[in-house]
Amino acid sequence: MKRANIYRTAAYVTAFSVAEKFFGFVYRIVLSRTLGSEGMGLYQTALSVFAVLVTAASSGVPLTVSRLITKYRAKNNPAAQQSVVSAALVCVLCFSVPLFLLLFFGHGLFDFLFSDPRCMAVLLVLLPSLIFNSVYSVIRGVLWGNKQFVPYCVIDLVEELCMIGAGVLLVVHATDVFDGARRVAAAIAFSYFVSFALAGIWYFAKGGRLRSPRRQLKPLLSSAMPLTAMRTSGSLINSAISLLLPARLIAAGMTSGEAMSEIGVAMGMSMPVLAIPATLIGSLALVMVPELAENYFRGQHSRLRANIEKALKVTVLIACLLIPPLFVLGEDIGVLLFSSVQSGQIIRNSCVILLPTSIAMITTSILNSLGYEKQTCIYFFIGAIATVACVWFLPALVGVYAILLGTAASAVITMLLNLRLIGKKSKEKVCFAKHTCLSALSILPAVLFGTFLRGALGAVLPTAAACVLCGIVLLAAEALFLAALGLARPQWLKMLVRRS
Fold it and tell me: Which of 96, 100, 148, 271 could form a disulfide with 57 if both were Cys (CB 3.0 to 4.6 A apart)?
């Protein structure tokens, strides 16, 4: 893919992703105001367990299918590509269908998972979508591997809009918070069915076929299983934290209601705001990973090194651009969006973790695209130990911030290990340390300028208007400052819209 095409495609993917996440973010605000903290707690707890099931069923499949299709496309072997698709479908269905049947008809055996039995009822509503999502994950990998990013993004956006539309229509008629949580779960199941149907129609309408999966089962499983293990472990840890954190907060002196409220504020309100960079970095990874895999398989080491550097530098810029506005406007964001001062304080106090978490995310994607899934899986487990340790030991000292400190510790460990491996395996030296240090140093003057600007605007404008104007001006000033330092290149923006 030409450099101009990479940037232009990244712009398309980012636009779709930002739109999708924006609508989802607004939807979360609606749910938090409609269901309240109790309903959100029921929904979030059931969803955390469902996320484990989804991850275990298919999380390693899209990247593996993408990488294998890239490999066989480079070798001009369409039959092997179709065999990869068949093998992936066999794998996900052989896991997801029995798992659905076991949990749906034998759910009484698993009631011990939840302290509140209502959560199991919400989970049962979600379960059918496990099969839909598993099949779609295969087609997602096909689209990714063939660099068909626009249909990929359109399907994801339609899925999100269907979930939001169905959710709003259903939840407004809820009789209580429990009924509301089940209705929100039904909206998710409906949206997964829509994406499953659209993906299947697209694949066969574009000439996709199925072939014998026999020869591709082993390479598919050997690559997908470490990824699936890593991501399933991540979901298991998140679910364990959802169950462990309230217990540790209660042990630290909180009541059960206070603990659930703290978790609702931190995980249901603040953390989605802190996940904003993941949207942009995920878009970058979506475009760059197939390109990196193709560079690797073709032995294009100079181009591979350049693309790795580019991905790292853009990731650092994204994080360093967003940290100052979140620090300066964090409290305002919490109050304006969620009517919660505590949520805003968490956003302000924790936004610095965006830099290590962003670098950890993109370096993991880079290594996975080069075939180092087993190593990234090991690194993930090492980081996860730090997260669990923080959640276990720190609530008595820092309360709900224990989960945020755990996230930061895990990201730093993963980031360092990933960078070390990239340095060892790259044929040409990857240089981005100077860029990272200068970008990080730019955060302090941006925060000082933003704090002054917010105070000045707040004296003459309403809070919402002052926040919006401050955010726009601060981002623009940061961009100009980074460009003046030579860290952000104006021609990158031109290449987003340049025609090939």
Answer: 96
Please state at what angle helix 401-425 crosses helix 373-393, rounded to 10 degrees.
Answer: 160
Q: Which residue's entry shows tokens 């694949």?
A: 203
The owner of tokens 């484990």 is 52
What phi, psi does 489 have (nearest 5°)?
Answer: -95, 125
From residue 33, how far is each of 12, 168, 337, 338 by CA, in Å? 32, 12, 10, 8
What letter represents residue 303's amino acid?
A: R
- Return the SS3 of 443: helix
The string of pLDDT tens digits covering residues 146-204 is 878 788 888 989 999 999 999 999 988 888 888 888 999 999 999 999 999 999 999 99
CA distance 237 to 244: 10
The rounded radius of gyration (Å) of the Cα atoms in the chain is: 23
The CA-based angle 71-54-49, given to 5 degrees, is: 150
Which residues lie closer than 8 Å to 21 by C-beta, 6 or more apart? 276, 279
As a whole number of angstroms, the distance between CA 495 and CA 500 comes to 10
Q: Which letter does DSSP use for residue 400 in this model?
A: T
The pair of three-digit structure tokens given for residue 332, joined into one six-digit string: 């305002």
Instruction: Report the alpha-carbon distance of residue 265 to residue 44 in Å, rounded.
Output: 12
pTM over 0.70: yes
469 Rama sector, left if φ>0, alpha if ψ -120 to 50, beta otherwise: alpha
Q: Where are the domains of the chain?
A: 1-231, 252-489
Q: How many CB atoms lie within 10 A of CB 62?
A: 24
**Full DSSP string of 137-177:** HHHHHHHHHTT-HHHHHHHHHHHHHHHHHHHHHHHTT-SSH
Q: Please list, residue by residue across 92-103, b when 16 or more beta carbons sit within 10 angstroms of its beta carbon and e when fewer do.
A: bbebbeebbeeb
